[in-house]
Amino acid sequence: MRDEKLNKTALLAAFMPEAEKPFAERTPQDSATLAKWFGLVDWFTGLRRVALAPSFGPDPKRRRAA
Predict the structure, then answer these.
(1) What is the mean pLDDT of residues 11-33?
(2) Contact 8/38 with Cβ under 8 angstroms?
(3) pLDDT number for residue 26
């Protein structure tokens, strides 16, 4: 993941029809939606590059109320 080039548009085109449109044909709403997703892809790839495995379970440091 560190050395590979990622085509974010191709990645998003797999599940977002807005990404398949040429840049000049996108509506402002399409562009806004894609801008949000491009940011999320940047976060994801950044976490993958540093080999962070996120966990969304309960916080082990926090005690549960009995």
Answers:
(1) 94
(2) yes
(3) 94
